[in-house]
Design goal:
- The complex is a heterodimer of chains A (116) and B (113).
- Chain A is an all-beta fold.
- Helix content of chain A is 0%, strand content 48%.
- In chain A, the strands form two sheets. In chain A, strands 2, 4, 5, 6, 9, 10 and 11 form a seven-stranded mixed sheet that branches. Chain A has a four-stranded antiparallel sheet with strand order 1-3-8-7, with no helix packed on it.
- Chain A is globular.
- Chain B has 113 residues and is mostly beta strands.
- In chain B, strand 6 and strand 7 form a beta hairpin.
- The chains are: A mainly beta (116), B mainly beta (113).
- The interface between A and B is medium-sized, with 24 and 23 residues.
Chain lengths: 116, 113
């Protein structure tokens, strides 16, 4: 059981470039989400999904797109990177309320992104 | 909007001492309050949580207290050990459906041997 796997761990982009941050979980969790972590600001929700084919915006969605074609994967896309998107990005997943053994969110180990 | 204030931002204690981290939230509808521990280079890990129908919850050396009237909740760590050194985040959410967590700004705890 690998849990939540994020790739890459580190990435440097130039302003205007695009990229996809990958997130995969092998726990059959229905709920998945993306957070960004900035110094002094805690973690803020970008986008989330309650199941395959269903996504919604969080607190800071601008500049990011997501899709959820399978239960396991929830990629985060930056269409045109900006320096303001320099941050550490975390993917998290959880069983739905209807699932057995519902607990807290399981976080991945993060992707550190620098936009120059 | 929703907001969680967390204090202190840094906390240094000697091994064996107790540590207390406090959070204040603004949304009176919130009813789920988890605490996460983040070690260097890793993602946050849930260590304890409390729901609004409970005033206190303990798990070995860790306890969380909740005062819904004052909108305060606190993390208490007793008999601290060097491996407790990490950044701790409080959060709050409405405990229905997805649970959109709103996080505090974090407390860096340093436990010295």
């Amino acid at each position: 059981n690998a849990g939540v796997t994020q790739t890459p761990k580190f990435q440097v982009l130039k302003t205007g470039q695009s990229m996809t941050l990958q997130c995969a979980q092998d726990m059959n969790h229905e709920y998945m989400s993306w957070y960004r972590q900035d110094p002094g600001m805690g973690l803020r929700l970008i986008h989330y999904s309650v199941g395959a084919g269903i996504t919604d915006q969080g607190e800071v969605p601008n500049g990011y797109n997501v899709s959820r074609s399978t239960t396991e994967d929830f990629p985060l896309r930056l269409l045109s990177a900006a320096p303001s998107q320099t941050s550490v990005y975390f993917c998290a997943s959880r069983r739905s309320r209807a699932g057995q053994g519902v607990g807290g969110y399981t976080f991945g180990s993060g992707t550190r992104l620098t936009v120059v | 909007g929703e907001n969680v204030e967390q204090h202190p931002s840094t906390l240094s204690v000697q091994e064996g001492d107790s540590a207390v981290i406090k959070c204040t939230y603004s949304d009176s509808a919130s009813n789920y309050f988890p605490w996460y521990k983040q070690e260097l280079g890793k993602g946050p890990q849930l260590i304890i949580d409390i729901r609004s129908n409970v005033g206190e919850k303990k798990d070995q050396r860790i306890a969380v207290t909740l005062n819904k009237t004052a909108k305060h909740f606190s993390l208490h760590i007793t008999e601290t050990q060097p491996e407790d050194s990490a950044v701790y985040f409080c959060a709050e959410a409405l405990n229905t459906g997805f649970q959109k967590l709103v996080f505090g700004t974090g407390t860096r705890l340093l436990v010295s041997p």
